[in-house]
Design a protein that fits this description.
- The protein is 80% helix and 0% strand.
- With 69 residues, it is an all-alpha fold.
- It has one domain.
- The chain starts with 8 loop residues before the first helix and ends with a helix.
């Protein structure tokens, strides 16, 4: 795993977005199988929602660290 220096919220935001994309990409097959009976739009929507949820969660964690630090 590569080490990333995060000096500010913008750096963290960019990292979180890229990490979320990676997670969604890796989990894409599982998501597609989970919604196999849905249409392509349902699969795309599910993937986008998962990515948004991950990014939101990571930003909340970062905000907590800044507030506590």
């Amino acid at each position: 795993m590569e080490t990333v220096a995060i000096d500010n919220r913008n750096d963290f935001t960019l990292w979180a977005i890229e990490r979320a994309k990676e997670i969604v990409s890796q989990q894409g097959t599982a998501l597609a199988l989970a919604v196999r009976d849905g249409n392509e739009e349902d699969i795309r929507t599910g993937g986008n929602e998962l990515g948004s949820a991950i990014t939101t969660a990571l930003l909340e964690v970062y905000d907590g660290l800044v507030t506590e630090g």
